[in-house]
Design goal:
By secondary structure, the chain is α/β, with parallel strands linked by helices. Strands 11-14-17-10-18 form a five-stranded parallel beta sheet. The chain has a four-stranded mixed beta sheet with strand order 1-2-4-3. The protein has a three-stranded parallel beta sheet with strand order 5-8-9, with helices on both faces. The relative contact order is 0.10. 36% of the residues lie in helices and 17% in strands.
């Protein structure tokens, strides 16, 4: 007897339909799985065998052939345990008159017949739903996550026996209630009101988040670079349902969302400076997402920027420009979105005291140039805002009054982003940082006085064409933060001041 069970596979954040076909024939007992399975899928034979017996059913003493179609797509992981077991029971006639259930199923089996949560459920459900599937039988631990997809029916499965009883009609599984998206107010460890002094840096951070611009914080040890960076999540706009869905899809692939449901806050990723290129951009045998994709719609914080390996920093250039990354490995290729705000921090020199009024700098000019030279010009071009953070004096530290709270700054950020959404409603983007040359010409055209200032800055700072365009984008954001459509000379002048490390600024 032949049975067919519908399942689904994953390739990056996309997917493909999988048909689990099982044939049971006379002959010496054997159990083969074909269809380009990886090691984890092949090992499922023993899990399936034990799960069927411990669920109270009979494992057929016959020649069993399981085919995972299409045969030219590699099948990975333990997601096929449940459909393989169900297919064997259907082919052996133990499910009654229902050998081919209409639902899509996936899940990992324990030896006792229990169904365990798996990684990647949300992108698989979304992809299968786009292909016309509406009913899914999946692990109970993944039900909440999948139930946020509107228009699908989720059957939460705790054990193999429970699913078999559902198929036979003995004890139908009640669908999981559809989850409704509700944003939640987050508590943050650091608020902008707690940061003493550094008004210029706080202003620069607000502009960076408002327009989606990358920012580099430069200052001596103790100036507050890390504290400011870790306060940035408190001014990020609240997530929308669509953004949360896309973020959760990426994190689901790594298994981070098991039992958590939808992600409700924007990511803040802070990898150590010893991280490898694969950890940052993604990789491994399965072409898994890296930190830059896990930071999608959020912030990627790189502390001690010059201490990162040169190859790791250079790997950032393409995703910073394009907003996505294609991870290619011998066994798999996957494309992941990577629209994040890069927040980086660095000391001004190896000893950290260059420009300090308190501690003398011990570094030679050549050492400072070599240290700053670890960050290449093309990468600096992609960092829109480079701001120096001076040392905080005692008077500022002992000040009793607090600064602006994050809630007030966030309100301005959200208002600025709303202006951008309306402006770019027909252009396919949502942030000023995403403007191309055509849109820059349309929305950032300077007047005569501003053009003279820009021409002088272009020559004196020896800017590249890319750096010049980023100055125009930042000026557009400054105007949006100040709730004005016109970009004035003052806006362009402020944007120019945020290029601290461009040529003349690199001189020690």
């Amino acid at each position: 007897m032949l049975s067919r069970i519908k399942s689904h596979g994953l390739n990056g954040i996309g997917g493909f339909a999988v048909q689990v076909e099982t044939d049971i024939a006379n002959g010496l007992p054997g159990f083969e799985i074909v269809g380009l399975p990886d090691a984890a899928v092949k090992e499922s034979r023993e899990r399936v065998r034990a799960a069927i017996k411990n669920a109270g059913y009979v494992f057929p003493a016959a020649r069993i052939t399981v085919n995972l179609a299409p045969a030219d797509m590699r099948k990975e992981g333990a997601v096929y345990d449940l459909p393989v077991a169900l297919s064997i029971l259907a082919a052996s006639g133990q499910l009654g008159a229902h050998p081919n259930p209409a639902f899509v199923t996936f899940g990992e089996l324990g030896l006792d017949g229990g169904v365990r949560a798996i990684a990647g459920v949300l992108p698989m459900v979304i992809d299968a739903f786009s292909k016309g599937e509406t009913v899914f039988a999946l692990p109970e631990g993944n039900a909440e996550e999948a139930a946020y997809v509107e228009g699908v029916q989720i059957l939460p499965v705790a054990t193999l026996a429970q699913l078999c009883e559902h198929v036979r009609g003995d004890a139908p599984i009640l669908p999981h209630p559809t989850e409704r998206w509700q944003g939640s107010e987050q508590r943050y460890a650091t608020d902008f009101s707690e940061i003493k002094g550094q008004q210029g840096a706080k202003r620069a951070a607000e502009i960076a988040i408002a327009g989606g611009h990358n920012i580099l914080l430069i200052g001596t040890p103790g100036a507050g670079k890390t504290m400011l960076a870790r306060a940035i999540p408190s001014i990020l706009p609240k997530l929308t349902y669509e953004e949360s869905l896309e973020i959760t899809k990426i994190h689901s692939i790594t298994g981070a969302t098991k039992g958590r449901g939808m992600i409700r806050e924007r990511p803040f990723r802070a990898p150590h400076h010893g991280a490898s290129s694969a950890a940052l951009v993604g990789g491994g045998n399965r072409a898994m997402p890296g930190e830059i994709s896990l930071a999608h719609y959020g912030v990627l914080f790189l502390d001690e920027l010059p201490e990162f390996q040169h190859g790791v920093l250079e790997a950032l250039r393409q995703p910073l420009e394009d907003g996505f990354i294609t991870v290619s490995r011998a066994a798999a290729t996957a494309t992941y979105p990577a629209e994040f705000v890069l927040v980086a921090a660095m000391n001004p020199c190896p000893c950290g005291n260059h420009g300090s009024k308190i501690h003398p700098c011990r570094c030679a000019k050549s050492q400072i140039e070599r240290y700053r030279g670890r960050i290449s010009g093309p990468l600096l071009d992609r960092i829109d805002i480079q701001i120096e953070m001076p040392e905080v004096g005692f008077a500022e530290l002992s000040e009793k009054a607090t600064g602006e709270p994050s809630t007030v700054i966030r309100a301005r950020v959200e208002a600025a982003r709303e202006r951008q959404r309306k402006r770019f409603a027909e252009d396919g983007i949502i942030l000023n940082a995403q403007m191309n040359s055509r849109l820059i010409k349309r929305y950032c055209a300077p007047d005569a006085a501003s053009e003279q200032l820009l021409a002088r800055a272009y020559a004196e700072l020896r800017l590249s064409a890319r750096a010049y365009q980023r100055i125009l984008k930042v000026a557009r954001t400054i105007a949006d933060v100040e709730d004005t459509e016109e970009i004035t000379l003052a806006h362009y002048a402020e944007a120019i001041q945020y290029r601290s490390l461009d040529q003349s600024g690199r001189e020690a």
